[in-house]
Design goal:
heterodimer; A: 300 residues; mainly alpha; globular; B: 240 residues; Rossmann fold; six-stranded mixed β-sheet; four-stranded antiparallel β-sheet
Chain lengths: 300, 240
C-alpha cells in the first residue's frame, strides 16, 4: 500500500508536467492541425534558459521567493517569444501547404533548437541548482512528499484551471475555439486568425516553459536532448486524452504520469516507456480519437 | 428606404484560382438600403464574388469600394469592423459552440455585444432563443441557417451579405428565412444576396445581376429581370 501511495504522489507530479507540455501540443493541433514537434525542445530550452537566468542574476543574492518568481516569469516570457518566432518562421509560411510539409518543418525546427542548446550550453549534462525551493520533506506514514512536488502539483493545477476558464468563459477563449473549428468563418466574425495563433503559441510555450523549469528543479540533471523524451511522452499523453481537446491533454498527462509511476513501482522503471506505448496502442484501438476525443456534432 | 448613396461598388473585378479565371471583370454596386441579388448557375462565380468582396479571397485586378473607402485586398477581419458582414455558403456555424456563443462571436468586433440586437435577433428568429444553450452542431439545417444569419447581424453591419441562405432547406423553412431577411432589410440593413432560388430572391430584391461564367450578362430591377424572357427560361424554369 505504501508503494502505491508513494507512486501515486510521484505519478501525479510527473503527470502534471506531462499535462502542461501536452497542452502546448493539443492547443496548436486544435487550431492549426499541426503537430508542433519542436515543442519538446522548447521545454528543454526553458530549463537551460532558466538555469542561466538563475545563476547569472540571483546567484549571490541568495534565493528569495521573488527571485524564484522572477526566474519563472522571465523564462516563460523568453520561451513565449521563441514560440512566436517559431510559428512566424517555420509554420506561417506553410500555413496553406500540405500538413506533411509543416510536420517536416516542425521536426527541422526541433533539431535547430536542440542543436542551438548544445552549441550554447554544451553537450554535457548540466546540474540545476537545488536551492530554488526549500528542501522540506514530509513523511506521512512512510509516504514521502517533497516541497518541490507540492509546488509542481499546486502551480500546475492553478495554471490548468486558469487555462480552462480562459478558454471556456472568456470572449478571447471562445474566439480561440471558433478559430479551431473554422478559420474562414472566424475571419468573417472579425477575428484576426494570426493574432489568435500567436496567442496559442504564447500560452502553449509559456506552459511548456514552466514544465521545463520544474523538470530542472525536480530531476536536477538537464541535457540538450531531453526535449525529445519529455516531448514524446507529453505528445503520447495528448493523443491518449484526445488531441485537440484541452481537458483531454490534462487528463491524458495525469493518467500517463500515474501509469508510468505504477509500472516503475511494481514492475521496473526500465519498462515504463514500453508500457507507455502499449497503453497508447490499446487506447487507440478502442478510442481512435482519444479518451476525451473531439466531439463530433457538426451537421453538414 | 433606398437613398442614392452607394454603399458598395465593385469595379472591373478579376479573381482567379491559379491559372483558372473565375471572375472576369465584373462591375456591380449596391446602394444604401437596397436589397440586391446575384443570380447564376452553379460555378458561375457567385460565391467567389462574395468571398472576394468580404476579403477571404484576393482579387487579381479591379477594385472594391465600401462606404467610400477602398477595401480591395483588405484582410477579412478588418472588413468586418468597417460594417460588412458575410454569412457564408453552407452556414458554417461553429458546431461545438453553443447557439449563444455563436451569436456572441458575431459581435466579436464590438466592445461588448449589444443586448438590444440580441433581443431583436431572438424576436425575429425565436427558435434560436429556445435553443440558446444547445450546441450549434445539434441544430437542424434550418435552425443552423437562422443562426448563421443571426450571427452575421450581431455586429450591426451596414451591409449584410448572404450566400445561398435557402440551400438545402425545406420550402416551409425557406419562407421563414426570407421573412427574416425582409425584416432585417426593413430595419435599415443593406442586403446583398446570392440565391439559387431565383424567384424568391427577385421577389425580395430591388435589383439583380445575372452572373454567367464569371461575367455579368444581365442586370436590372427585379421586375425587369422577372419579366425578361431570357431570365425566365434560364432561371425561373418557364418553358419557351
Amino acid at each position: 500500500m505504501d508503494i502505491f501511495l508513494q507512486q501515486l504522489v510521484n505519478g501525479l507530479t510527473i503527470g502534471s508536467l506531462y499535462a502542461l507540455v501536452a497542452l502546448g501540443y493539443t492547443m496548436v493541433y486544435g487550431v492549426m492541425k499541426l503537430i508542433n514537434f519542436a515543442h519538446g525542445d522548447l521545454v528543454a530550452l526553458s530549463a537551460f534558459a532558466g538555469l542561466t537566468v538563475y545563476t547569472n542574476i540571483f546567484a549571490d543574492g541568495g534565493t528569495s521567493i521573488i527571485a524564484v518568481i522572477t526566474v519563472f516569469m522571465f523564462t516563460a516570457a523568453i520561451i513565449a517569444v521563441v514560440g512566436v518566432l517559431l510559428e512566424r518562421l517555420a509554420y506561417r509560411p506553410l500555413r496553406t501547404a500540405p500538413r506533411l510539409s509543416a510536420v517536416v518543418s516542425a521536426l527541422g525546427a526541433g533539431l535547430v533548437i536542440q542543436n542551438a542548446i548544445m552549441l550554447i550550453w554544451g553537450p554535457n549534462m548540466k546540474i540545476f541548482p537545488s536551492d530554488l525551493f526549500p528542501s522540506t520533506i514530509w513523511d506521512i506514514n512512510g509516504v514521502v512528499v517533497t516541497f518541490t512536488q507540492l509546488m509542481i502539483l499546486g502551480i500546475s493545477s492553478v495554471l490548468m484551471i486558469a487555462l480552462y476558464l480562459f478558454i471556456n468563459k472568456t470572449k478571447m477563449g471562445t474566439a480561440i475555439r471558433a478559430v479551431a473549428i473554422d478559420q474562414d468563418a472566424a475571419k468573417l466574425m472579425g477575428i484576426n486568425v494570426n493574432k489568435i495563433i500567436m496567442i496559442i503559441f504564447v500560452i502553449g510555450s509559456a506552459l511548456g516553459a514552466v514544465a521545463g523549469l520544474f523538470i530542472g528543479i525536480y530531476y536536477r540533471g538537464i541535457t540538450f536532448d531531453m526535449g525529445w523524451m519529455y516531448g514524446l511522452s507529453a505528445f503520447v499523453a495528448a493523443i491518449i486524452g484526445g488531441i485537440g481537446n484541452i481537458p483531454g491533454a490534462m487528463f491524458g498527462g495525469l493518467m500517463l504520469g500515474l501509469f508510468n509511476a505504477l509500472i516503475s513501482g511494481y514492475i521496473s522503471s526500465a519498462w515504463a516507456e514500453t508500457f507507455t506505448f502499449i497503453l497508447l496502442i490499446i487506447v487507440l484501438i478502442f478510442r481512435p480519437t482519444g479518451i476525451l476525443g473531439e466531439k463530433v456534432a457538426e451537421k453538414v | 428606404m433606398v437613398d442614392h448613396e452607394i454603399l458598395l461598388e465593385v469595379k472591373k473585378l478579376h479573381v482567379g484560382y491559379g491559372a483558372i479565371k473565375a471572375i472576369k471583370g465584373i462591375d456591380l454596386f449596391v446602394k444604401k438600403g437596397e436589397v440586391v441579388t446575384i443570380l447564376g448557375a452553379n460555378g458561375a462565380g457567385k460565391t467567389t464574388t462574395l468571398r472576394t468582396i468580404s476579403g477571404l479571397l484576393k482579387s487579381t485586378e479591379g477594385s472594391i469600394l465600401f462606404d467610400k473607402g477602398e477595401i480591395t485586398n483588405t484582410a477579412a477581419h478588418d472588413i468586418v469592423s468597417l460594417g460588412m458582414s458575410h454569412s457564408p455558403e453552407g452556414r458554417k456555424v461553429f458546431g461545438t459552440l453553443s447557439v449563444e456563443e455563436n451569436l456572441l462571436m458575431g459581435a466579436y468586433t464590438l466592445k461588448s455585444h449589444d443586448a438590444e440586437t440580441l433581443a431583436w435577433i431572438y424576436k425575429i428568429l425565436p427558435r434560436l432563443k429556445e435553443r440558446e444553450k444547445q450546441l450549434a452542431g445539434t441544430l437542424s439545417g434550418g435552425e443552423q441557417q437562422m443562426l448563421a444569419i443571426g450571427r452575421a447581424i450581431m455586429s450591426k453591419p451596414k451591409l449584410l451579405i448572404l450566400d445561398e441562405p435557402s440551400l438545402g432547406l425545406a420550402p416551409v423553412l425557406v419562407k421563414g428565412i426570407f421573412k427574416a431577411i425582409k425584416e432585417i432589410s426593413e430595419n435599415g440593413v443593406t442586403v446583398l444576396i446570392v440565391e439559387q432560388n431565383a424567384k424568391a430572391a427577385l421577389k425580395l430584391a430591388d435589383r439583380g445581376y445575372v452572373l454567367e461564367l464569371g461575367k455579368i450578362t444581365h442586370e436590372g430591377s427585379s421586375e425587369e429581370l422577372l419579366n425578361s424572357k431570357v431570365i425566365q427560361e434560364a432561371y425561373l424554369g418557364k418553358k419557351k
